[in-house]
Design brief:
The structure is a single chain. α9 runs antiparallel to α10 and α10 crosses α11. The chain has 14 helices and 28 strands. It is 26% helix and 33% strand. With 498 residues, the chain is of the alpha+beta class. The protein has three domains: 339 residues, Neuraminidase, CATH 2.120.10; 72 residues; 68 residues, no CATH class. The strands form seven sheets. Strands 5, 6, 7, 8, 9 and 10 form a six-stranded antiparallel sheet that branches.
Length: 498
């Protein structure tokens, strides 16, 4: 897993998992899976890409998932893409959070709105026509997000671990409302009953704000009274914080990794060394939950209506070495791993799909989904290819299945069949993996025209071409020499059209 986030739908007792999985399959995510939170039985998935493999949002690094008042899903990624889809995965909107470089206009007047939201459907993404450097605007880097169902408010934490940044507030329509200052870019956020909890990774604190941005208090998660008499509401809280940086910095002790609210009055705070601390809403210590083993990092947490706590552990903050999903009862007793390791999450769906196929209830997408899982789990490709062929028999226009078939045949060495499939798929969809594979094939054939054709397709997809990222057989230098004056190096030392 490259990234994974949890969400509990208390109305149905459902556990939703929003994730990407870029490296174990041909194309990757994003994905949205639903499980019964009591039995962990797979219930369904929501398709976040169409028949051409085009994702509804940025395919990598999921940050947040929630359901709004109408039952639609709100998805966010760390590159500030905000997407809303309905229960079937159909996109309602896709937007991007942006800011101006300067809070002052050219007329030397303060901007009324330093932040704004770009509607990608109406105005395109920055790659389409917008030069950031000329426009003096930038996309944000999101660290966390929270949602208030009762107020239909989205809160975005952006910036970095150690700098004071603004919290952005939008409504469910993806419209910017206002912002307020926070001590740091919060590692995680949670909303409940008009209160917003911000996880301060740098100082091992949890800051409590109202939805309107008024600071109320800060909780010392390490329980060492480090903020006694230091942070005063009567004076500038943030200035005080920075003046006492040496006192409050907790890097050598422990850091806040994640948090979530539990029930009406509890707060779970995950620490980087693996401990999960349960506090009441005033910050009083109730009990601790020890990690299943050393080296477990509580990356994402959520609690259900029965106060069961679900924790997805990784090896560190960057999602290396996924450890699996664990469940803790209201008393802190552990059950798990519910899903272990990197690919455990796919096993329940695999069983459900195999049963569906055995009962002759499967459609083209079901056969494709099962083939995708088998490819991820490194099962014999022949079995996956048979499923992909059945998928295309039921729906010849399922282009993503044709792409998978071509890439799978290539791995088996059936090159001519693979190229035929990939070229047909590329007429209807874009895929850098296929473009690279076709460049490799025609490079060996010394066909400059075809190499140039798929170079341009890849450039359209990626902005520039880094063949070495996708290929073990071909280098940027070989392509540069082969295409000659048609290409040049850019500032990133990748290839672009000349």
């Amino acid at each position: 897993m490259d990234a994974l986030r949890l969400y509990i739908d208390d109305d149905n007792n459902d556990l939703w998992i929003f994730f990407s999985d870029d490296y174990s399959s041909h194309i990757g995510g994003p994905f949205l899976y639903c499980f019964d939170s009591r039995t962990l039985k797979f219930k369904r998935d929501v398709k976040l890409y169409n028949d051409k493999g085009t994702p509804v949002t940025s395919p990598h690094d999921p940050l947040f998932v929630t359901r709004d008042q109408q039952g639609n899903f709100v998805l966010a990624t760390d590159l500030a893409y905000l997407t809303k889809v309905d229960a079937q995965g159909k996109r309602i909107y896709r937007k991007r959070l942006m800011r101006h470089d300067c809070r002052w206009t050219s007329r030397n007047t303060k901007r009324k709105k330093f932040y704004f939201i770009r509607d990608i459907k109406k105005h395109g993404d920055y790659r389409d026509r917008l030069d950031y450097r000329k426009k003096n605007i930038h996309s944000l880097y999101l660290m966390s997000m929270a949602y208030s169902v009762s107020r239909d408010l989205l809160f975005f934490g952006q910036g970095c671990h150690c700098c004071s940044k603004d919290i952005l507030v939008c409504n469910g329509l993806g419209e910017y409302l206002y912002h307020f200052r926070s001590p740091v870019g919060p590692e995680d956020m949670a909303a409940r009953d008009g209160l917003l909890y911000l996880a301060d990774n740098f100082h091992a604190l949890v800051h409590v704000f109202t939805y309107e941005g008024k600071w109320l208090r800060s909780l010392d998660v390490l329980l060492k009274n480090r903020i006694q008499g230091v942070i005063e509401p009567e004076i500038d809280m943030f200035q005080q914080q920075w003046n006492t940086d040496g006192l409050l910095h907790a890097e050598d002790e422990d850091q806040v990794a994640s948090l979530c609210v539990i029930g009406e009055d509890k707060l779970a705070v995950g620490l980087a060394k693996g401990l999960i601390r349960i506090l009441d809403q005033e910050g009083n210590h109730l009990f601790d939950i020890q990690p299943p083993a050393p080296g477990f990092y509580p990356k994402s947490m959520v609690a259900d209506a029965s106060e069961n706590l679900f924790v997805y552990y990784t090896g560190d903050s960057c999602f290396s070495k996924p450890r699996g999903l664990y469940r803790y009862g209201a008393n802190g007793k552990v059950k798990g791993p519910l899903f272990g390791g990197v690919l455990g999450i796919f096993k329940p769906e695999q069983k459900a799909l195999e049963k569906k196929i055995a009962e002759d209830r499967a459609d083209a997408c079901d056969y494709f989904d099962l083939a995708d899982i088998l490819i991820r789990r490194k099962k014999p490709l022949r079995e996956a290819i048979g499923l992909l062929e059945k998928s295309l028999e039921l729906n010849p226009d399922l282009w993503i299945a044709l792409a998978y078939l071509g890439l799978s045949l290539k791995e088996l060495g059936e090159t001519e069949k693979a190229v035929n499939c990939m070229e047909r798929a590329m007429e209807h969809m874009g895929c850098s993996n296929m473009a690279t594979a076709l460049m490799e094939y025609y490079y060996r054939k010394h066909d400059q025209e075809k190499v140039w054709q798929y170079f341009q397709r890849m450039e359209d997809l990626e902005e520039d071409v880094d063949v070495e990222f996708y290929s073990e057989e071909l280098t940027n230098g070989q392509i540069e020499e082969f295409l000659g004056a048609l290409v040049k190096r850019n500032n990133s030392n990748n290839l672009v059209s000349n």
